[in-house]
């Protein structure tokens, strides 16, 4: 059967996502969450890059979500990928907004986390799929 057609609508506003959506519909994606994103729920609103900064502040997004009583989740990088043995890599699960978007949109189309993670997690992050380890 045919794959679903993805249509993304984008709008900008000064309003908070908490003013636009019910708190129980919001999932804040943060690499510091203990909750693993296992599937995408079409009834949820996923916050990508809710805080944009020039440097990475550990647990800042998790803290923000907890303060707002918003659900959190992280991409299943540790569950599907392994650390590369290359000494050039520093093993980071923190991705740019476009990388997270690529992962989520590929997962939505394929329903395959390995395919999705391969599409969005660059080798420079220090993680690879197990079948690519030499």
From TrEMBL:
Which controlled-vocabulary keywords does the entry list? Methyltransferase, S-adenosyl-L-methionine, Transferase
GO CC annotations on file: nucleoplasm
Reactions it catalyzes: guanosine(9) in tRNA + S-adenosyl-L-methionine = N(1)-methylguanosine(9) in tRNA + S-adenosyl-L-homocysteine + H(+)
Superkingdom, natural source: Eukaryota
Top-level enzyme category = transferase
Ranges for domain SAM-dependent MTase TRM10-type come to 1-128
Q: Does the keyword Ribonucleoprotein apply?
A: no
* InterPro entries on file: MT_TRM10-typ, MT_TRM10-typ_sf, tRNA_m1G_MeTrfase_euk
UniProt EC number: 2.1.1.221
Q: Where is the signal peptide?
A: none
Q: Which GO terms describe its molecular function?
A: tRNA (guanosine(9)-N1)-methyltransferase activity; tRNA binding
One Gene Ontology term from the biological process aspect of the record? tRNA N1-guanine methylation
The name of this protein is tRNA (guanine(9)-N(1))-methyltransferase
Biological source species:
Tricholaema leucomelas
Q: What is the lineage of its organism?
A: Eukaryota, Metazoa, Chordata, Craniata, Vertebrata
Q: Which gene encodes it?
A: Trmt10b
């Amino acid at each position: 059967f045919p794959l679903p057609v993805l249509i993304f609508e984008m709008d900008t506003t000064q309003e908070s996502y908490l003013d636009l959506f019910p708190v129980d519909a919001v999932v804040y994606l943060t690499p510091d969450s203990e909750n693993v994103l296992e599937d995408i729920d079409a009834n949820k609103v996923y916050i990508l890059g809710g805080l944009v900064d020039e440097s990475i502040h550990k647990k800042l997004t998790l803290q923000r979500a907890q303060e707002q009583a918003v659900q959190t989740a992280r991409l299943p990088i540790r569950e599907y990928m392994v650390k590369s043995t290359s000494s050039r890599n520093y093993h980071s699960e923190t991705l740019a907004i476009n990388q997270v978007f690529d992962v989520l949109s590929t997962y939505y189309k394929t329903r395959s986390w390995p395919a999705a993670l391969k599409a969005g997690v660059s080798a420079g992050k220090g993680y690879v799929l197990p079948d690519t380890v030499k």
